[in-house]
């Protein structure tokens, strides 16, 4: 049944695509705005996904199947202003288009933490310090894994929690996906370079998802990845370009130094620039971690402080793909309840 | 290594440094270790840069060594710092310039404490008033003496007689810089260039013709570390720290080490002798050690000061090979003449 009610989704990543699909399937007139040239967000950059090692493009293809003619997609869309008119909204785009909406879904996602802010690790200075996103780019492009000087790395270190659970940097939250991504990337590296020695420096291994623990076990037992519990204090460059890592092995209770040919920084999530921009435009409340604050942490996780504006995905907190998709579907049903004024909408807590 | 990455960080850590009218407080140990350094600093500021710099005869130690040695309580330390500020206030100055890195760290720590805990400042004002009848104003600007030299490094270069260049090869001298732990590690935004890739000494070296080398143990402590040396049983650890640094820098073949802190040149200089006695090992060229200079001494050298006037004869490691390398004349006969 076709509805005359209009929803505008801001952000064309996983959550934006999936929520738009469901809202369109419910009959709403949905416009999906994306600032980049194509949909997919961060997912488009990841080759394989934990814990199944499925290709990221398979999930993207699945999500794309929901974006049929009922969803109007506007890429390269830059929002200049959003006006409120009673319970409705007018959205002004840089190209002159004006959109009307009875509800807005904000799915502005996350940005990756800028690893240069952890100055002591030398990203952007030491040639062989890279991020997990850089390593994924190696995997996606099919390029050979090589150091800056063209050598096959004999040893690689992974530093967990870069920009996460770090009071000094101002991000005290866990980014949720980095531990298992390090496990996944370690296995992929071992598959490509069977002789490479891999060291993961972690605080806690947060293997909360179904099958994560099994993947962690596989990394240790099948692939011989060494997990060292301790936070890296600093990385320095040796004269040959290899990286000297200083870390405390907290299980052995001893400081240690070891040299690796390549150091991979597992960068966490930070609120996206889009989150900040749209939040300020709509007077949305931010939580203590600078992601959007939801009306309630248990039962109103898709609802904002502004009537008619809803959230889905990683704009409220770090989420892995599975959680972002279920959150998007939940947001779609929450918006439908709002637009239809269902009785469930009237509940309070 | 990408210098651009360091330059981006340097841009983020620039601090305000007053350009004249300084109230100078000395280090309690430098005048014994390398007495020419502070003299050279004052001489450069007054004679070369034409600045107004004043030192009050009644100023004292900041008690930093006692504080970091766990024998001076923080309240006592804050009150002594307040007294130093009262001398500055009485003298009509507001730009406070400590000679010592530890003192710089102490003053920074106390000012930061007062900013976050105004009740602590109020308490200390009462202590000082009751004990001495004095009052004080918070400094308008706090800069370490090396910050001043850094600020005027181009002016010094413009008046230099020598460059940090090997006159035989025409190549820049390879310089290890060591800023001292308390310059920026506690408060990175108070140091020029921050804590991880500090620029205060690097800026001087680059301006005066040298080339700074980065080596894996660059950030490591020189070996002083207060308790590492002051507690006699820990002295092996002090030596081990210096040893670790020398082993790490040796492959880069540094010509000189330039230091920022009163303790660092002492330990990096003297421990080379001890390591040689214990291990038969020397880290410099031609069976020599690596000369260790303070930044004031290096500034004095490029300005053409007599090496013995700036106190280079006080160093364990002979400075002559580096003077020869740069082409600085010296009279060996007068090296130890008073």
Tally of domains of chain A: 2
H/E element string of chain B? HEHHEHHEHHEHHEHHEHHEHEHH
Helix count of chain B equals: 16
| Helix percentage of chain A | 10-25%
Average of the residue pLDDT scores of chain A: 96
Strand content of chain B: 5-15%
Key structural traits:
heterodimer, A: 349 residues, alpha/beta, FAD/NAD(P)-binding domain, 2 domains, 5-stranded parallel β-sheet, 7 helices, 20 strands, elongated, B: 338 residues, Glutathione S-transferase Yfyf (Class Pi), Chain A, domain 2, Rossmann fold, 4-stranded parallel β-sheet, 16 helices, 8 strands, globular
Describe the structure in your own words.
The complex is a heterodimer of chains A (349) and B (338). Chain A has a five-stranded parallel sheet with strand order 5-2-1-9-20, sandwiched between helices. Chain A has 349 residues and is of the alpha/beta class. Chain A folds into two domains: 6-109 and 272-346, FAD/NAD(P)-binding domain (3-Layer(bba) Sandwich); 115-269, FAD/NAD(P)-binding domain (3-Layer(bba) Sandwich). Chain A has helices at 14-25, 56-65, 132-141, 178-192, 212-221, 273-282, 321-340; strands at 6-10, 29-33, 48-49, 54-55, 71-74, 79-85, 88-93, 98-101, 103-106, 110-112, 129-131, 155-162, 197-202, 226-229, 232-237, 243-249, 254-260, 262-267, 269-271, 309-311. The longest helix of chain A has 20 residues, at 321-340. Chain A is elongated. In chain A, strand 6 and strand 7 form a beta hairpin. Chain B is of the alpha/beta class and 338 residues long. Chain B is built from 16 helices and eight strands. The longest helix of chain B is centred in the first third of the chain and has 17 residues, at 74-90.
């Amino acid at each position: 049944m076709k509805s005359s009610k209009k929803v505008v989704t801001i952000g064309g990543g996983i959550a934006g695509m999936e929520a738009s699909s469901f809202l369109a399937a419910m009959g709403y007139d949905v416009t999906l705005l994306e600032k980049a040239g194509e949909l997919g967000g961060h997912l488009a950059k990841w080759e394989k996904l934990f814990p199944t090692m499925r290709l990221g493009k398979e999930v993207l293809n699945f999500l794309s199947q929901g974006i049929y003619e009922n969803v109007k997609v506007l890429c390269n869309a830059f929002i200049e202003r959003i006006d409120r008119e009673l319970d409705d909204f007018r959205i002004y785009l840089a190209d002159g288009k004006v959109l009307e909406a009875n509800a807005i879904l904000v799915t502005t996602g996350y940005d990756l933490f800028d690893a240069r802010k952890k100055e002591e690790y030398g990203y952007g200075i030491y040639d062989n310090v890279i991020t997990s996103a850089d390593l994924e780019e190696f995997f996606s492009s099919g390029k050979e894994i090589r150091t800056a000087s063209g050598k096959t790395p004999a040893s690689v270190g992974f530093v967990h929690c870069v920009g996460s659970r770090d009071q000094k940097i101002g991000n005290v939250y866990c980014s949720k996906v980095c531990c298992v991504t390090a496990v996944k990337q370690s296995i992929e590296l071992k598959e490509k370079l069977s002789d490479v020695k891999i060291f993961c420096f972690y605080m806690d291994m947060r293997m909360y998802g179904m099958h994560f623990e099994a993947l962690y076990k596989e990394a240790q037992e099948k692939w011989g990845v060494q997990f060292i519990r301790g936070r890296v204090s600093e990385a320095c460059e040796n004269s040959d370009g290899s990286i000297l890592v200083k870390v405390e092995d907290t299980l052995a209770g001893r400081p240690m130094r070891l040299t690796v040919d390549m150091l991979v920084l597992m960068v966490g999530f930070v609120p996206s620039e889009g989150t900040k921009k749209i939040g300020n435009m709509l007077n949305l409340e931010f939580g203590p971690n600078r992601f959007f604050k939801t009306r309630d942490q248990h039962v109103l996780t898709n609802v904002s402080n502004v009537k008619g504006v809803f959230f889905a995905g990683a704009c409220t907190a770090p989420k892995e793909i599975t959680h972002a998709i279920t959150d998007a579907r939940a947001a779609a049903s929450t918006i439908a309840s709002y637009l239809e004024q269902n009785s469930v909408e009237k509940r309070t807590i | 290594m990408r210098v651009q990455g360091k330059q981006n960080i340097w841009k983020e850590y620039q601090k305000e440094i007053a350009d004249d009218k300084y109230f100078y407080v000395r280090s309690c140990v430098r005048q014994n270790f390398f007495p020419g350094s502070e003299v050279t600093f004052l001489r450069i500021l007054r004679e070369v840069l034409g600045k107004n710099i004043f030192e009050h005869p009644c100023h004292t130690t900041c008690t930093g060594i006692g504080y970091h040695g766990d024998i001076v309580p923080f309240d006592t330390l804050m009150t002594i710092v307040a007294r130093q500020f009262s001398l500055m206030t009485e003298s009509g100055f507001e730009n406070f310039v400590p000679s010592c890195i530890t003192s710089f760290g102490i003053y920074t720590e106390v000012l930061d404490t007062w900013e976050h805990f105004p009740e602590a400042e109020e308490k200390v004002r009462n202590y000082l008033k009751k004990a001495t009848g004095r009052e004080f104003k918070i400094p308008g600007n706090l800069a370490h003496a090396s910050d001043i030299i850094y600020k005027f490094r181009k002016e010094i270069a413009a008046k230099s007689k020598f460059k940090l260049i090997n006159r035989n090869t025409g190549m820049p001298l390879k310089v290890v810089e060591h800023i001292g732990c308390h310059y920026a590690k506690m408060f990175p935004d108070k140091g020029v260039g921050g804590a991880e890739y500090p620029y205060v000494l690097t800026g001087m070296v680059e301006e005066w013709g040298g080339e700074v080398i980065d080596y894996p143990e660059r950030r490591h402590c020189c070996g002083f570390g207060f308790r590492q040396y002051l507690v006699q049983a820990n002295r092996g650890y002090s030596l081990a720290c210096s040893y670790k640094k020398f082993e790490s820098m040796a492959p880069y073949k540094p010509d000189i080490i330039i230091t920022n802190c009163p303790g660092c040149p002492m330990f990096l200089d003297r421990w080379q002798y001890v390591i040689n006695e214990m291990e038969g090992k020397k880290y410099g060229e031609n069976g020599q050690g690596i000369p260790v200079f303070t930044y004031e001494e290096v500034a004095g050298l490029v300005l053409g000061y007599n090496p013995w006037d700036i106190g280079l004869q006080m160093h364990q490691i002979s400075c002559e090979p580096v003077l020869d390398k740069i082409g600085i004349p010296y009279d060996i006969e007068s090296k130890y003449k008073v």
